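Structure first, sequence second, as always.
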């Protein structure tokens, strides 16, 4: 079986790996360089609980996705020789007002009633977990089982593994101009140098998914949502836990680097990093973790989260036979990468 995969981000790469493990041949197509877009720009938060926010339909999927990362990270690191930065560092979602504290307490009660590990801490207890939290924090929801990976390292590991796999062909610099449809079935993709025929095609092009020619109109549109990010560096490292505030987060890598984000902007494919965006991110980070004010500013960037109009990820078979979806994951692409890849590979091959 031959499968064409449109998009070489973490979804496309993980799907290629999962297909190859099931005995299928995968052709991984990217218009530029593998992992250049949203996957490399992400913070890598494995927020199986902090991202739930009372959404019942995501409980099982998000928690299973987070828990799938521990064995997968071990596998990726062992097979590639690249440490992917998996750390079950825990997440503190902090409140700086009584209203925020009440909202978090409701979320914690909702999660614990479903058997999830979560606790509501007062300000002093929160600072005992993470001493760098500021004095204005009056409470925090603690999700000790959430964690992080380094998406850049994950992609390096995946690409190294795929490059050695005889079942996987990597074609960078190969933009897909459209789907090849015969009758009521997708039978491949159109490239600049002709058609690539395949038994199945996976649409994993992130925010560009709806721009691929021939994608059926009944598939929800995937739109770009810009997220700006910045990196600070502490010497020596101080922050240990991922800290969420009402308007962003700070993610310590453990070696002194701290990623701070992120804006949520519907500006099309406008990639600029703005003064207002940086100001908002820094204001949130310093309000939650004042000691970051002494950190060195290292870098800033932006990229696009793929948000589907359906308000949930598009995963599995599509209305067009032969076309499978692995896109529209919005804020949770890194979290959902492994379970999405396995679900799509299983749907295509029929094997577990």
């Amino acid at each position: 079986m031959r499968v064409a995969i449109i998009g070489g981000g973490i979804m496309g790469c993980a799907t290629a790996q999962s297909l190859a493990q099931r005995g299928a041949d995968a052709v991984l197509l990217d218009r530029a360089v593998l992992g250049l877009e949203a996957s490399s720009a992400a913070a890598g938060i494995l927020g199986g609980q902090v991202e739930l926010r009372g959404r019942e339909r995501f409980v099982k999927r998000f928690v299973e996705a987070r828990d799938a990362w521990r064995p997968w990270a071990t596998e990726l690191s062992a097979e590639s020789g690249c440490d992917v930065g998996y750390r079950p560092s825990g997440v503190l979602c902090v409140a700086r007002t009584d209203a925020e504290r009440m909202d978090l307490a409701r979320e914690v009660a909702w999660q614990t009633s479903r058997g999830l590990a979560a606790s509501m801490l007062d300000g002093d207890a929160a600072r005992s977990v993470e001493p760098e939290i500021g004095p204005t924090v009056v409470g925090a929801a603690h999700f000790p089982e959430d964690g992080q990976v380094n998406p850049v390292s994950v992609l390096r590991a995946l690409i190294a593994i795929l490059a050695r796999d005889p079942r996987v062909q990597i074609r960078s610099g190969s933009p897909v101009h459209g789907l090849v449809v015969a009758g009521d079935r997708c039978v491949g993709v159109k490239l600049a140098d002709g058609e690539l025929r395949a038994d199945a095609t996976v649409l994993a092009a992130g925010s560009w998914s709806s721009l691929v020619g021939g994608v059926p109109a009944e598939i929800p549109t995937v739109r770009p949502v810009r997220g700006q990010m910045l990196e600070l560096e502490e010497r020596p490292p101080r922050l240990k836990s991922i800290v969420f505030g009402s308007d962003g987060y700070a993610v310590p890598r453990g070696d002194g680097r701290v990623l701070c984000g992120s804006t949520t902007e519907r500006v099309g494919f406008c990639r600029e990093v703005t003064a207002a965006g940086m100001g908002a991110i820094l204001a949130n980070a310093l309000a939650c973790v004042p000691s970051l004010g002494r950190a060195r500013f290292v870098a800033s960037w932006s990229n696009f989260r793929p948000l589907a109009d359906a308000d949930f990820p598009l995963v599995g078979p599509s209305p067009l036979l032969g076309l499978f979806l692995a896109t529209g994951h919005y804020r949770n692409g890194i979290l959902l990468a492994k379970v999405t890849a396995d679900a799509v590979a299983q749907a295509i091959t029929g094997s577990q």
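Margin note: DSSP finds eight helices and 19 strands in the chain.
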